[in-house]
Amino acid sequence: MAVYEILKMGDPVLREKAKPVTRFNSNLGRLIDDMFDTMAAARGVGLAAPQIGIGKRVCVVEVGKRRFELVNPEIIEAEGEQCDAEGCLSIPDYTGRVKRFQRVRVKAQDRKGETFIAEGTDLLAVAFQHEIDHLDGILFVDRVENDNPEE
Question: Which residues carry out catalysis?
């Protein structure tokens, strides 16, 4: 497996909307495996394909023992609210408070093209939302809450 270099904020690829995956083949499977390896090497909980320079709607998430490969994901249901510190592998050494949904349901496909529904709460919900944002060219810093409105 390969470990990719993770792009940093400022790289224009991170601001582009990723294209849907239409081919479900061994190349996609290798990409997903490499993304899990890259995420683990960087000690992250999620990674989106644009973060490694690939403009496809693919992301991986691992929270605790729950591991997800999400191809063409979309949030289909969301409720509640949480506001916690968030960070990003593409923006090292920076965290900020971000308001997110507390629970989300995500419709996605796996590496074989099979559709499934994943549900997450708390950190898992944050990870799903954060990675799907990457697929839309949105970075978490775009959503950081201003803790001091006087500034």
Answer: 131
